[in-house]
Design goal:
Layout (H helix, E strand, L loop, with lengths): L3 H4 L16 H19 L4 E2 L5 E3 H5 L4 H4 L4 E3 L5 E4 L4 H12 L8 E11 L9 E11 L4 H17 L5 E7 H8 L6 H9 L8 H13 L10 H10 L4 H15 L11 H13 L4 H15 L2 E2 L1 H14 L5 H13 L9 E4 L12 E7 L5 E7 L3 H4 L8 E7 H7 L12 E5 L6 H13 L3 E4 L12 E4 L1
Parallel strand pairs: 1-5, 7-9, 13-14, 13-15
Antiparallel strand pairs: 2-4, 3-4, 5-6, 6-12, 7-10, 8-9, 10-11, 11-12
């Protein structure tokens, strides 16, 4: 009788969502594309740089923004350090730059390229979940408009180099948005909220109202969305120095909390500090509403540079904003528009949002024309160096393409013949095994590829030739 235990089969162990297996043909194609892109990027003067797969979690949290932070594979290592698998390359490359140039009076100009796996967990997009390969370049040490032009032309050349027939470059400049928001006087937190929501903001009253409500829920707007008792507290501490405000809030807590009431894991001081930030952390409602309205006007500017840039110019002028950022964007579009990889593919789109908070100037996406699926993107991130502990801002910009997305967009390749230039070495019998091993070794020593017929069932048609020994 067969026991019940022996008849139970364990559940199969399956590949994790978002992780990929590459068979010999797919891996060969992937490596070929990596080699071609490394050679192409190298023609612009970018040398290869390799950074660790594992970094301190803090490196990616300093200026990443909430979207990326929620997607990281993070854990505590055996040394009790908070570490993460890299979700992108830029922060690690800037960390490396600061380590080797931290004492420099003037930031040196460097051009680096990279290729390797990154890891993100995104429940909203199966295509962006798990492990995928980024290939890209970073130009650190120049704030020149010529640097912006070089990097955009290089990034646009990636799909062109691979024969991808239909792609577009969507371009915006956060400096233009900043110039408009400067006229309102918003806090950094309110600005970051607006930038993160540019792809959701429109110029309709419904979209503005829903985004303003979201700002209230996140306490970007002061007072709105607070419970009634907290509105009274906000009035009570208005205008008080922080020390006096904390005393008022601590007294309120003692008055309203019984001796046996639990406060959870936080101490009373921590709760007071958190409440004070909540009460004071928001901007005035009318200022945020005005900022959202201006941002909504810009978010509606999309299309060919010849028509879209004058629209943006009019919005900047009507707001009474500084015109330097929009003037620079106009000059940049003119600089790159004649390049063959860019010509007739460039679009202005101020609703563009990159999802990472360290960008501060131009931002761009490269998308497939037939589906709007992203092939890659990037932008300028001059403030990242200081966020990572540098003494001063370092001008920098870069881009990354997703190799798997590029492969999917490329024209199909002819499958390679598995036995091209491969010799099958087949022993005639058991007493020929040693001779077969020697024959295969001789072929390899001469630079050939030899496969032993270890199963005795090799198919000669799959190989260039067969040697029987």
């Amino acid at each position: 009788m067969v026991s019940t235990a022996s008849s139970v089969r364990p559940n199969p162990v399956r590949r994790l969502p978002g992780m990929r297996d590459f068979d010999a043909g797919a891996r060969q194609r992937k490596q070929d594309v990596e080699r071609r892109l490394a050679e192409f990027i190298g023609r612009f003067g970018y040398s290869a740089l390799e950074v660790p797969v594992l970094e301190s979690t803090e490196l990616f949290l300093r200026k990443s923004g909430g979207d990326l932070a929620s997607q990281m594979y993070s854990f505590v290592d055996p040394g009790s350090n908070a570490v993460s698998l890299r979700p992108e390359f830029t922060s690690a490359i800037m960390r490396h730059y600061l380590e080797i140039n931290g004492d420099s009076d003037e930031p040196p100009l460097v051009r680096w390229q990279y290729c390797g796996p990154v890891f993100r967990y995104d429940t909203g997009s199966a295509a962006d979940t798990g492990q995928f390969t980024q290939v890209g370049a970073e130009l650190v040490g120049s704030n020149s408009i010529l640097a912006d032009a070089e990097l955009l032309i290089l990034a646009a050349g990636i799909p062109a180099r691979l024969g991808i027939p239909d792609y577009r470059i969507r371009l915006a400049d956060l400096g233009v948005l900043d110039s408009v928001l400067d006229t309102v006087g918003l806090s950094d937190r309110a600005r970051e909220f607006i930038v993160a929501n540019m792809n959701r903001i429109g110029d309709s009253s419904d979209s503005l109202a829903s985004t303003l409500q979201r700002a209230a829920e996140l306490h970007v707007v002061s007072g709105i969305g607070l419970p009634e008792e907290e509105k009274h507290l906000a009035v009570a501490v208005n205008g008080l120095p922080d020390g006096a405000a904390r005393s008022v809030l601590a007294g309120f807590m003692r008055w309203n909390t019984s001796a046996d009431m639990t406060l959870g894991r936080r101490s009373p001081d921590e709760i007071v500090d958190r409440l004070l930030r909540k009460l004071r952390g928001g901007d005035a409602s009318d200022a945020v509403e005005r900022g959202l309205a201006l941002a909504g006007q810009l978010a509606g500017v999309k299309g060919d540079p010849a028509s879209a840039l004058p629209q943006a110019q009019s919005i900047v002028a009507a707001a009474g904003a500084d015109t330097r950022a929009i003037d620079r964007l106009i000059d940049l579009a003119a600089l790159i528009s004649e390049d063959p990889a860019v010509s007739r593919r460039l679009e202005i789109d101020f609703s563009l949002a990159r999802g990472i908070a360290y960008y501060n100037g131009i931002i761009f996406d490269i998308v497939r024309g037939d589906s709007d699926a992203s092939l890659g993107g990037g932008g300028r991130y001059d403030a990242l160096a200081r966020a990572l502990g540098g003494e001063a801002p370092v001008p920098a910009l870069g881009f990354a393409c997703t190799l798997e997305a590029l492969l999917a967009a490329m024209p199909p390749a002819d499958p390679p013949h598995p036995g091209h230039d491969v010799v099958l070495v087949s022993p005639r019998g058991d007493d020929s095994h040693a001779a077969a091993l020697r024959a295969a070794a001789d072929i390899r020593d001469q630079g050939g590829v030899a496969v032993l017929d270890v199963g005795g069932n090799g198919v000669p048609a799959d190989f260039a030739r067969t040697v029987a020994v």
